[in-house]
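Regression report. Comparing outputs from two consecutive submissions.

Submission 1:
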Amino acid sequence: MYETLTFTGGVHKSEEFKELIEDLGGFILQESTLQMELVINMAVPLNDVGKVEEKARELLAKISVAPMAGSEIAIVSPTLARHHLPHAACDISEYLREFGAKDNMVGLARGDGKGTSGISEEEKDLIEEHDIAVFALGSFENCIKSKSFLYDDIDIPVIVTGSPDIPVEELPGADAYVGGLGRIPRRLRRGPDIRALDNLVETIEEILNNKKREMTLDPPIVPSIVVKNAIENQVPEIKDAISPAPLTTQLDGVRVKLDYDKYHEVIENIIIDGKKLSEIADIKKSKMYDYILVKINSESSFVDDQ
């Protein structure tokens, strides 16, 4: 079992910290540098968390638990136009990143009104490539309730946000509802806004933890971070990818930001524990920019196939 953590500190001597993670059998999930500040999302064995914290103190850095690290979240808005997106969805996205999440903004093509809004099958497929979907809706209760058709048949967990307080039972297809996050023509910087964002974070963490507990009953054949590490070591082209987080881990897979038509055979032939990746995972073209989506088979499905 691994604990996901975030390191925040200086660049000086950071190589020592990265070497420690490797020596402990851990993995770097994502790394970013802003001027002289380094942020590393990592997964390390539970028994070695104390060693990581000790090294961080030595480097005058901060270690925090990142429960959303290793997950990919879709932030869905009826449109990305100003009609539905003054600030809330962007601020939600920014806030979730502070807790280790990798999130993507998804704007639906037909969201310009209560009577004309809609969602296509391709948009649903794109949303379902993620671990969780957060539908950032508006400020009117009757409008929010009438939009349940946007997500009522989406297979991944769905969290709906809006301004009024609405019982989740009145939103068919939603796994949770978080109020206080409607259409607000300003940044979410006031006390009630931050409390609503914290409530959303707690809700996402709870759903992710529930998914992780379910996965322990029938886990993937190999952890997604092992697949990510194998791709990094066996596919040198990934180092030249200019997309942010060119390898994005999910709870049960990895999004590889390389062109599917050009590189899918390379990804399929990666060797993990003596097996080709294509033997233990489904590899398909993503709806996002024709990237490669790797979904790892569970242990039970692998046994059935044998």
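Submission 2:
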Amino acid sequence: MSFNKLIKNVCESIGKDNNPAYVVVAIATAKGIFRPLFTMMDKKESPETKKYAALREGLTEIIAIPTYLACGALAGKGAKLVKDPEMAKRAKHNLRFVGVCAAALIVIPGLCSLVIKPFTDMIFHKKDKDNKNPAKLDIISKAPEIETQNVNTVENISKKPITNPVIQKYDIAAFTNNGMKVG
């Protein structure tokens, strides 16, 4: 068998029943291995920050892999509604692709929001004691006295005589010549 024939056969067999979930699972596996590894190799960050970031990145990909597979498979089941066998095969491929896209855009971010923070808090022994029992404010103590001699209170205002306001006259010509120039 020639090399060209081998390449042609491999490409044809890969393209016959291609599942898009396999491609994104391969990518997620590589990201799950290498991103935490590169994060831990960063010399500029503190060890605690590196551990937390690497754990988050690894957990994200651990959540992503089964989610891609499940969403792709579930979406592909919708092709059973198509009666024509050739169209059903195309519909299955297209629906798998839509399922994988939905997993990447909606399902995985939602799952990560629900799972990762509690898990990382548990791993790093972060306690929420401060949030459960907030510090009590001392609202009973007396506020310092403020001098109010020169403050305009209702009594002080009512004792002042009412005078006519001074109306200033503006030179319209001077006002219009000093404004912003447009053009």
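Expected: both submissions complete independently.
Actual: both completed, but the second showed a warning that disappeared on reload.
Relevant detail on submission 2: Residues 3-128 form one domain.
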